[in-house]
Specification:
Helix content: 40-55%
Number of strands: 8
Mean pLDDT: 97
Structural class: alpha/beta
Shape: globular
Strand content: 5-15%
Order of helices and strands: HEHEHEHEHEHEHEHEHHHH
Number of helices: 12
Amino acid sequence: MTAPSLAERLDGLLFFPVTAFGPDGALDLDAFRAHVRAGVDAGAAAVFACCGTGEFHALTPAEFAACVAAAVEAAEGRVPVLAGAGYGTALAAEYAALAERAGADGLLAMPPYLVVADQEGLVRHYTALAAATSLDVIVYQRDNAVFTPATVVELAKVPNIIGLKDGYGDLDLMQRIISAVRTELPGHDFRYFNGLPTAELTGLAYRGLGVTLYSSAVFAFSPEIALAFHRALTTGDDATVDRLIDGFYRPLVNLRGKGRGYAVSLVKAGVRLRGLDVGEVRPPLSEPAPAHIKELAELIERGTALLGER
């Protein structure tokens, strides 16, 4: 029997763990393993280590390799582990090699560093990265890496580029991308992911396009809330979806908007609030204001209480 492909295994809620640091600022791999293991035990469908939420930008190559290996160890083969890869083409290829040696199952290819490239340059970048590894690659659309439908068709032709994670949020563009790939590559199994911060808020809209996979930042600190929402969204339980959006997710997005970098630092604060000391974020990010952490604690309490309502 042929083993399922990575694309086939990515079916459920996607977990982006934070990277744990000790009081001295160094990696705390024990805490990181505990965080990953708890997420897999809770029901994550995949682990995306050392990506945006995992502060990829703040890790040295050696730290990156150690974290990916620790995630693979903690997942124990129960779910696939994917790792971030970014910066310029040469460095992205080096990170891909580190992830492959550490046992990762795939890569999330983040935007190139600093430069704003044209579409031809983006195709060359991601094609070169895919050629440098035997791992399957998901391309992350956001910031300075926004693709035309024709570009995504070209990327989808690359055998080990298996999907697109959208962190840009232009639904018109996404519909045109999906339509172009479907038309130009009929029958091609190319996967799409909602990668917006607090993706649950746009889950209904993306499902209308047929995009059912998404990354959940909330899962990192409140897997029970994230899983309840995912279950409700999947089964058409609109009452629960609306209740959690109105009472938890919309206020969370409002809170996230109160500080720069809160898409990462607020998640890390949430993990600490739930009892696992994963340390603070590294510069240039800053910790949330104490009042905002208090507000987050109250929101988590409120969201948990909403799970008991019908």
